[in-house]
Specification:
This is Bifunctional 3-phenylpropionate/cinnamic acid dioxygenase ferredoxin subunit. The chain is mainly β. The chain is built from no helices and ten strands. The strands form three sheets. A four-stranded antiparallel β-sheet has the order 2-3-4-8, with no helix packed on it. It has a three-stranded antiparallel β-sheet with strand order 1-10-9, with no helix packed on it. It has a three-stranded antiparallel β-sheet with strand order 5-6-7, with no helix packed on it.
Length: 105
Amino acid sequence: MSFLRACALSDLQEDVPKRVDLNGVPVSIVRTEEGVFAINDTCSHANVSLSEGEVEDCMIECWLHGSSFDLRTGKPSGLPATKPVAVYPVKIEGDDVLVSVNQES
């Protein structure tokens, strides 16, 4: 599994998503009280950017229709989304946030 640098840990504000592009994959990086998470940035229901939504209780909400996705699993909490979005392994090395988009978890 190969990891790519997504951003600096110091660039992340708690519960504020940051969109990055890793090898053509849109990824939302989110720092919460529980840790740092990487989730595919495209809502499985409406094909819009999740990083434009709000984060609360380790869930990211799609701003368009209100579906929320668990940052740990990618599973939606309810309608209108029914399909999960991919989540990716994260490693922290110093101030670097590293993400592997090659193998979904």
